[in-house]
Amino acid sequence: MNGLQLIATGGALPERTVTNEELSRMVDTSDEWITTRTGIRTRHYCGETENAATLAIRAAQQALERSGLGPEEISCCICATLSAPDATPSVACQVQRALHLPEGCPALDVNAACSGFIYGTAAANGLLATLGGKYALVIGCEALSRLMDPKDRSTCVLFGDGAGAAVFERTESNAPFAVTLGARGDDAIHAGGPSRTGSSPITMDGKAVFRFAVDALPKSLDRVLQKTGLNLDDLSWVVCHQANSRIIDHCVRHLNADPAKFYKNMDHHGNTSAASIPVALNELAESGQLLPGQTIACIGFGGGLTWGGAIFQYRK
Ligand code: ACO
Q1: Residues 88-112: pLDDT tens digits?
Q2: What is the mean pLDDT of residues 36-60?
Q3: Neighbours of 126 (CB within 10 A)
Q4: pLDDT beyond 90 at 195
Q5: Which of 149, 174, 262, 310 could form a disulfide with 201 if both were Cys (CB 3.0 to 4.6 A apart)?
Q6: Which residues pair with 182 in a beta bridge?
Q7: Is the CB of 148 under 6 A from ligand 1?
Q8: 243 lines ligand 1 (CB under 6 A)
Q9: Would the pLDDT of 83 be above 90?
Q10: Which residue has the higher pLDDT, 247 or 198?
């Protein structure tokens, strides 16, 4: 089977940590409301000199170093983000330059909001299959604090900044690999781009998105499992987009699954959109919980609306 295996991860978080207490001094909210409704306690916000690209470069550099590969061995660089600091050069091109990736290495950004890392992984697999090459760098990075209205309590308590990176190897082994993707154009989550007049921060119909998410998550997991012929017991980890702990709990109950398999870290990151899955993968690897030979499912859902699932093996 042709597919990708994860061989290294990296991560980068801004130094500044923002607590629920701090937010409750700025808008009419409370630690109790945020914690019980979302599971979020703290998140990181970029400082003045940080943005989605600087975080992406740090995370990608770390993943590349840990892979033991030289930059010349990377054959494509994909960056998933909805909060790129510049329309051009893309974040992926900024990474390409900073890491001295070869000129033959295509570099592009993917915007599929919180499903971006899954879309990016599928794109990387497709590019390696089309153009040749063995190794791909897939990054998820966000500076969502720059897109939020700090006075809107319905969104400003949810989001955070960060970046995670993965180095994948294209393999012809029998290691399980599959990706499924979906999209349905809908304004339930909206954020204006640079060409919009006036400021247009993130708005979200939270209840509608919650209903969409609790439906999309188990369906995406089921579809990607079906594609590999595996079942839930064959997975060591399910790494879902970290929007809200209640969405993951709902899925665990619905599937009658082992909650310990469903990694959660939104308590200290909030929702970092495209970065949330690779940041979680990096935490699992750094903490020694992700072991070589383990099979992981990653499930994304969010703005667009978009959704998708990926299954791959970790091979250090
Ligand atoms: N503090 C205190 N009260 C608040 C806050 C806050 N921060 N925010 C909203 N409220 C109030 C509301 O005004 C409302 O008050 P009312 O009943 O007097 O009108 C009450 O709390 C309940 O609000 P709901 O919106 O119904 O709260 P809910 O329980 O649905 O939780 C939340 C809101 C957390 C946003 C939830 O709907 C959710 O997680 N939705 C899904 C988000 C998601 O998955 N996003 C993923 C994609 S993000 C992306 O792609 C960028």
Answers
A1: 999 999 999 999 999 999 999 999 9
A2: 97
A3: 12
A4: no
A5: 149
A6: 307
A7: no
A8: yes
A9: yes
A10: 247
CB 58 within 8 A of CB 14: no
Sign of CA dihedral 50, 51, 54, 60: positive
User: Measured between alpha carbons, how far is 1 from 177 in angstroms, rounded to an integer?
Assistant: 8
Q: Is the CB of 154 under 6 A from ligand 1?
A: yes
**CA of 210 relative to ligand 1 center, distance in Å:** 9
The first and second tokens of residue 184, run together, are 């349905």
| Per-residue pLDDT at 192 | 80
Q: Could you give the angle at which helices 52-67 and 91-98 cross, rounded to 10 degrees?
A: 50
Mean pLDDT, residues 208-219: 95
Closest CA to 219 of 255, 249, 263, 272: 255
User: What value does the mean pLDDT of the chain take?
Assistant: 95
What beta strand segments (E) does 95-174 contain? 107-110, 135-143, 161-171
How far is residue 210 from each of residues 149, 205, 214, 224, 256, measured CA to CA in Å?
20, 9, 6, 21, 20
Q: Which two tokens stand for residue 28?
A: 């009419």
The CA 221 to ligand 1 mean position distance, Å, reads 25
The structure tokens listed for 44 are: 């990181």
Nearest to 90 by CA among 79, 101, 105, 104: 79
